[in-house]
Amino acid sequence: MSVIFGILIAAVLLGLNVWLYTANKKTPAPEGCENLRPDCTGCGITDCTLRRKEEEQ
Prior knowledge:
Blueprint: H1 2-26, H2 49-56
């Protein structure tokens, strides 16, 4: 019986996760946050993917 409860709880949590993920995808970004780009001049990380993309351009 405890195995059934474990499977039921896991299914509920999985369903909740899927529902929250889809609801989050449908929510529009707040005003002013549509296209945020970090300022790479102050960052010391040299192997950052954003820095590599800027150097290629």
